[in-house]
């Protein structure tokens, strides 16, 4: 028998991968999620490219056209109290709001995953202390925390992002902790340990990829949460400061004209609603699509 | 459906007759034929062992008899399952409405499973669980039903039965829980007991206790037993007749002794040879006669005999043309192999 | 350096592994589960020693503690002469290459998110990070061939394989660093009968070819009888009998072994034998009986059995038992002659 030949007859070829791409297919079946994904894609592209295509910039003041209602003239979505083009402002504000949403999500994910994986993997005193801290943070009404801190600090886009991130990582930490704790006891994690793998390798190569589904879902919902949180703070005047537009502060400045020029409030309100519900739909869709129980094997 | 009274084909002693049973699962990937054209009978006091590996359809067959397979459109059943009722007539369970089926399960035919913990409700005391089934089928009072439950626990060898009525399932060992399941199954004195791998999760010493219990209960009640297992040692010990299944079809059926002494189907022969035997232990370490390969994908069955690709006696041209019929090779000994007579000739 | 082939590769002395049990009451002392309570054995180079017992006997805990996946409560583990009982994780790493584990459940033991190449090649990444990707791929392909799989399987994921093939993958992962000791924890009990035989054959072939030493942990006496040189029988955390395979099956010396052998069904309907039925279940390890822990189910028990834990002592060459009754003539329930 030659050295390279096997000692036994080769086993039959593996069964074909029937469930390949199953997650994508299941996501596609979720109509609302597909709709939401389309909206987010559209919003992102519009905010990124749109301002370059419009005849007006968001800061151009057309003093002759103050309070122009939508669909009435050169300004498609009308103008605000200073005669600035609403569409241009909406798109520029969208850049800020989406930036805040995605960045806050990214930072909160990093914090949440790190805390979750460390406490889930090591457990013991360290895990208990970390998770009790998470519980304490969760007990605190985060909206008041947000408002209190933002009233104290000098509000800027980056400070608002960090502020939202540090008040919204706890759910992620809990999800990751529970996942990692369960996965830790699985045989393949023990196998990695028996091979002499380092803690870092076990945590990030072996365990984390198996917890990715709930993390992705949480991330999506976190974007929605961050957009909403930014709107609250800005609406109450503690957030992104004019002239930098955000959907929240546009809503804030529209308050005085609710009866005379309702579109000033309706448009940013609709943008917020659309973005937040879209992310929530995507989250739902991903939850179903990535659920291993739907996988059949 | 009541228009299926005593059929002439069914012998007086038959408790169950299955004719041409087909069960398919409908999945997004396609239709999976889990059970194909399965026919058999079980007589009073007889134990029929259903043997096969995973994917053979043995468990699905047993679930199909009691219509415990998933509901349409996920799963479809066709064929006939004739079960003798209390009045002595044979009724076709496949055609029975679900409401009447509920009265059959647990009363005319009962089932026990591999893992009793999942079939027992963890939040109810075992006494109440047994009593509830008795009350459902026999309309006894709670008190009388509990009394009967205690008798049953006593019957299945649970010491201090009356006190054990108040125990929760998790307070019992695996063997004890399986005894409770058997007690529940026997509560209404069914004519047919279907036991799906009832000892697979148990240790050998406990397995021996449960097999012994089942044997004694059967002698006493003369019930028919369908015993599903992959363990050939257990088959040799408990079965009167054996039905071997592979990829959803019956491939061999015979009384237990001829089947073990002179199996006709190459698959059966391979199975028997691949089992390490205690009575040969330590005699030297020659290789076990493993069957090469694996069970084929049910969605892409090989042409002709489904065991062909793993069979040492595979003959191109005769084995891969059509699915071999199940033939009566010897009286009471059926085999699904076109080459059985040639192969036994070689062996002799 | 040529290792001394007569010296044991693995020496286990008085190994104990106790776990915290449930607290019986709010202010009561926590109970202790003595999962392994004073186990000693050796495995020589190239030998297959089987550890047999029912669930709850502590046999898997012995395997994992020997591999130092759990810290022993007491005792000593020496691997090739080196004491590894209390080495740190880092100090253990070189030993991890030399002793490997094959798991029972081929579904749970392979990371579903990793390809076969990553799974089987993981030990190389850990212990030989200097190896190039191409060289690593080559080693993975060779190891896959060794266990009867194809190099083309390397790009696939575990769920694309059947149970038997997955177990081959688990074996490939364990063998890629060419370990000296393989601990196989119920490696075939989750597999179908015909596949079991394939994997048992594979392990035997690999043992011959690679000169492996194997600690085979199983509840299946028939499989164990086929694969082992010696067998150690465990009951409630202790060894009750250790003997060469043939001697154990033909001349069991401990009543528990006798009952265990008697309970195994033999696939031959013509064999008629009287069965020794053990009453009841194994006692709870939280509250084991005093003295000999088997005495509550033993048909030969005497009042003296409750006294002290019987020592495991040699009663014939290479045949050890832990039972005070030397007057017994136990039957070989298999119908085998000595």
From TrEMBL, chain A:
Its main location: membrane. InterPro entries: BP-dependent_transpt_permease, MetI-like, MetI-like_sf, OppC_N. It comes from Teichococcus aestuarii. It comes from the Bacteria. It is found in: Cell membrane. Residues 94-283 form the ABC transmembrane type-1 domain. The chain crosses the membrane at residues 32-54, 96-121, 211-240, 260-283. It is a multi-pass membrane protein. GO terms for biological process: peptide transport; protein transport; transmembrane transport. Pfam families: BPD_transp_1 (PF00528), OppC_N (PF12911). This is Peptide ABC transporter permease. One of its GO terms (cellular component) is plasma membrane. Belongs to the binding-protein-dependent transport system permease family. CDD domains: TM_PBP2. The lineage of its organism: Bacteria, Pseudomonadati, Pseudomonadota, Alphaproteobacteria, Acetobacterales. The keyword Secreted does not apply. Residues 1-20 are annotated as: Disordered. The keyword Cell membrane applies.
TrEMBL record, chain B:
Keywords: ATP-binding, Cell membrane, Membrane, Nucleotide-binding, Transport. One of its GO terms (cellular component) is plasma membrane. It comes from the Bacteria. GO terms for biological process: peptide transport; transmembrane transport. Residues 18-272 form the ABC transporter domain. It is a peripheral membrane protein. PROSITE patterns: ABC_TRANSPORTER_1, ABC_TRANSPORTER_2. The keyword Cell membrane applies. GO terms for molecular function: ATP binding; ATP hydrolysis activity. Belongs to the ABC transporter superfamily. This is Peptide ABC transporter ATP-binding protein.
């Amino acid at each position: 028998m030659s050295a390279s030949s096997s000692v036994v007859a080769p086993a039959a070829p593996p069964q074909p991968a029937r469930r390949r791409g199953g997650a994508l297919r299941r996501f596609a079946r979720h109509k609302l999620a597909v709709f939401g994904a389309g909206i987010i894609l559209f919003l992102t592209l519009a905010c990124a490219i749109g301002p370059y295509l419009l005849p007006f910039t968001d800061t151009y003041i057309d003093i002759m056209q103050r309070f122009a209602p939508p669909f009435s003239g050169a300004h498609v979505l009308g103008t605000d109290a200073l005669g600035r083009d609403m569409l241009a402002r909406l798109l520029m504000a969208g850049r800020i709001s989406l930036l805040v949403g995605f960045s806050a999500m990214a930072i909160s994910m990093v914090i949440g995953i790190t805390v979750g994986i460390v406490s889930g993997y090591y457990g013991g005193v360290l895990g208990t202390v970390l998770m009790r801290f998470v519980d304490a943070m969760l007990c605190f009404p985060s909206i008041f925390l947000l408002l209190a801190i933002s009233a104290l600090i000098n509000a800027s886009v980056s400070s608002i992002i960090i502020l939202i991130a540090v008040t919204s990582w706890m759910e992620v930490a809990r999800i990751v902790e529970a996942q990692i704790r369960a996965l830790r006891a699985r045989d393949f994690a023990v196998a990695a340990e028996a091979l002499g793998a380092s803690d870092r390798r076990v945590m990030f190569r072996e365990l984390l990829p198996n917890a990715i589904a709930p993390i992705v879902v949480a991330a999506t919902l976190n974007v929605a949460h961050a957009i909403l949180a930014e709107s609250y703070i800005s609406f109450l005047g503690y957030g992104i400061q004019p002239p930098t537009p955000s959907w929240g502060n546009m809503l804030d400045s529209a308050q005085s004209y609710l009866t005379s020029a309702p579109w000033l409030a309706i448009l940013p309100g609709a943008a917020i609603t659309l973005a937040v519900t879209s992310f929530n739909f995507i989250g739902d869709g991903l939850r179903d699509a990535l659920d291993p129980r739907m996988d059949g094997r | 459906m009541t228009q299926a009274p005593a059929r002439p084909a069914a012998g007086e002693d038959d408790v169950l007759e299955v004719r041409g049973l087909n069960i398919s699962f409908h999945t997004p990937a396609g239709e999976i034929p889990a059970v194909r054209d399965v026919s058999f009978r079980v007589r009073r006091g007889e134990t029929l062992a259903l043997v096969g590996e995973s994917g053979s359809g043995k468990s699905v067959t047993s679930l199909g008899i009691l219509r415990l397979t998933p509901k349409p459109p996920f799963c479809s059943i066709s064929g006939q399952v004739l079960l003798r009722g209390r009045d002595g007539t044979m009724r076709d369970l496949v055609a029975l409405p679900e409401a009447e089926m509920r009265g059959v399960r647990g009363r005319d035919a009962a089932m026990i499973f591999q893992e009793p913990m999942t079939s027992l409700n963890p939040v109810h005391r075992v006494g109440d669980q047994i009593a509830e089934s008795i009350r459902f089928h026999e309309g006894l009072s709670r008190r009388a039903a509990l009394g009967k439950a205690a008798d049953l626990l006593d019957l299945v060898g649970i010491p201090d039965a009356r006190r054990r009525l108040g125990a929760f399932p998790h307070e019992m060992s695996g063997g004890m829980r399986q005894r409770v399941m058997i007690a529940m199954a026997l509560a209404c004195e069914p004519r047919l007991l279907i036991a799906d791998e009832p000892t697979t999760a148990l240790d050998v010493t406990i397995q021996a206790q449960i097999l012994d219990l089942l044997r004694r209960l059967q002698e006493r009640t003369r019930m028919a037993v369908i015993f599903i297992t992959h363990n050939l040692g257990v088959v040799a010990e408990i079965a009167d007749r054996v039905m071997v299944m592979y990829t959803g079809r019956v491939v061999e059926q015979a009384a237990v002794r001829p089947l073990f002494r002179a199996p006709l189907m190459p698959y059966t022969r391979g199975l028997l040879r691949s089992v390490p035997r205690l009575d040969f232990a330590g005699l030297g370490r020659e290789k076990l006669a493993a069957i090469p390969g694996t069970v084929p994908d049910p969605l892409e069955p090989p042409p002709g005999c489904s065991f062909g690709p793993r069979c040492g006696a595979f003959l191109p041209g005769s084995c891969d043309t059509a699915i071999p019929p199940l033939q009566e090779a010897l009286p009471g000994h059926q085999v699904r192999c076109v080459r059985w007579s040639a192969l036994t000739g070689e062996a002799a | 350096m040529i290792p001394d082939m007569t010296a044991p590769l693995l020496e286990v002395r008085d190994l104990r592994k106790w776990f915290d049990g449930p607290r019986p009451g709010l202010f009561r002392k926590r109970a202790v589960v003595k999962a392994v309570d004073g186990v000693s054995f050796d495995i020589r180079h190239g030998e297959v020693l089987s550890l047999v017992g029912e669930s709850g006997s502590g046999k898997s805990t012995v395997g994992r503690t020997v591999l130092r996946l759990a810290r022993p409560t007491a005792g000593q583990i020496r691997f090739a002469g080196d004491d590894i009982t209390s080495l740190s994780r880092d100090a253990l790493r070189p030993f991890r290459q030399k002793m490997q584990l094959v798991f029972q459940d081929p579904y749970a033991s392979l990371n579903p998110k990793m390809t076969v190449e990553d799974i089987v090649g993981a030990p190389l990444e850990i212990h030989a990070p200097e190896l190039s990707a191409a060289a690593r791929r080559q080693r993975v392909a060779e190891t896959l061939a060794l266990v009867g799989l194809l190099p083309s399987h390397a790009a696939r994921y575990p769920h694309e394989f059947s149970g038997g093939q997955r177990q081959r993958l688990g074996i490939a992962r364990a063998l890629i660093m060419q370990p000296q000791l393989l601990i196989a924890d119920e490696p075939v009990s989750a597999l179908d009968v015909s596949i079991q035989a394939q994997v048992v054959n594979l392990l035997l072939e690999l043992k011959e070819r690679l000169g492996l030493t194997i600690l085979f942990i199983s509840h299946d006496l028939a499989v164990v009888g086929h694969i082992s040189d010696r067998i150690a029988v465990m009951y409630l955390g202790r060894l009750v009998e250790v003997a060469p395979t043939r001697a154990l099956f033909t001349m069991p010396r401990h009543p528990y072994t006798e009952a265990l052998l008697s309970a195994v069904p033999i696939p031959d309907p013509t064999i008629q034998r009287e069965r020794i039925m053990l009453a009841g279940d194994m006692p709870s390890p939280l509250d084991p009986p005093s003295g000999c822990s088997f005495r509550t189910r033993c048909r030969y028990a005497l009042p003296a059995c409750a006294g002290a834990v019987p020592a495991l002592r040699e009663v014939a060459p290479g045949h050890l038992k832990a039972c005070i009754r030397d007057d017994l003539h136990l039957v070989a329930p298999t119908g085998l002659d000595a």
